[in-house]
Amino acid sequence: MAATETLTAERILEATEEVLRRYGPAKATVVDVARVLGVSHGSVYRHFRTKAALREAVTHRWLSRTETALAELTSATGRPAPERLHAWFAGLFEAKRHKAGDDPELFATYGVLIDESSGVVEEHVEVLVGQVRAIVEDGVRSGEFTAPEPDATARALFSATAHFHDPAYAEEWRKNTVEAEFDALVGLLLRGLRA
Amino acid sequence: MAATETLTAERILEATEEVLRRYGPAKATVVDVARVLGVSHGSVYRHFRTKAALREAVTHRWLSRTETALAELTSATGRPAPERLHAWFAGLFEAKRHKAGDDPELFATYGVLIDESSGVVEEHVEVLVGQVRAIVEDGVRSGEFTAPEPDATARALFSATAHFHDPAYAEEWRKNTVEAEFDALVGLLLRGLRA
């Protein structure tokens, strides 16, 4: 890649993902990232002050792609809240399943990075729970849901669906009964929310 | 321990747990178990034909203690089904939390053994799901619950409560908000089951 292009944080993060994919999380270094970009490692450090900061930033970027995709479902206030909530959890499951299934090596790599940087994951979970809460609150306002404490309810919903988004269960996502199990669970949760 | 006592499978399993606790899962051997019992390792092999079989049996024994304790709640048909279901999940959570908190080393040891013998865990989950299903079916019969497919519902309930029994979440069980989260989730699930 030509060094004459402006070196942006985004370009560094792209290159970092590429390097992680190529060498794995144990071997990837900032020097590798600089080499891919055709710049000195000092130039990379001007954007990310430590290797840990760079790894956190690339993990954050990976997780936030899902947040952005789901934000659309959150704000589609024209649709009934139960339908949106179902679509939101289906979208989350689909996104995680794609990440795990389409590129298992990169998924495993991010698994390692996630274990290193729990703060990034907690932030990700807070963003997702916030989106669920927004849908629950809309449903309460429209009289479709009963939820005296929308925040606690959003957390309960997120916890209840862990089998369909927590990477710890990624092995189960290939079972041919998994869709039916997802629908049974979300159906039960939506009945519990009904006004 | 005197070799003159009859060498039962139960005595061997007790000694195996003791040896596992003392040496850890990586180092514990059948010879260690025989030594604790004051018998030859051949005598142990007459009860358990391989080291793997012995480890599976001790894991099964550990898991089945929880099953036995919960079976009482399952069969207490005099109590309302929603109350029994709440008590059953609270009992499961309490049992797992005790195992994790009272003796973390033994809990970690069984974690290793469980990874070795997935068949034993699947059987354990089937027994537990069967108990949940029995309570759901009672609730349907008494008109307290609506569940067209009690088996799918029981599996959904078990999956939904993973945060409160799957050892993968053991770290979270010490949080001081965990009881409130458990109640919020089970409350939501019970509302979903309401006839």
Automatic annotation (TrEMBL), chains A, B:
Regions that span the bilayer: none
Record's keyword terms, sorted: DNA-binding, Transcription, Transcription regulation
Database matches in Pfam families: TetR_C_27 (PF17935), TetR_N (PF00440)
InterPro entries associated with the record: DNA-bd_HTH_TetR-type_CS, Homeodomain-like_sf, HTH-type_TetR-like_transc_reg, HTH_TetR, Tet_transcr_reg_TetR-rel_C_sf, TetR_C_27
Domain HTH tetR-type: start-end pairs: 6-66
DNA-binding region: 29-48
Protein's UniProt name: TetR family transcriptional regulator
Organism whose genome encodes this protein: Streptomyces solicathayae
